[in-house]
Amino acid sequence: MSEARRSRQSTLAILTICVAVDLFDFTIGRFFGLGLLADILQTVVAYWLFGPIGLIALWELIDPSDQLDGFVPTLTILALTQMRRSGRKPNRPRFLS
Question: Looking at the 3D structure of the chain, how many domains does it have?
Answer without folding.
Answer: 1
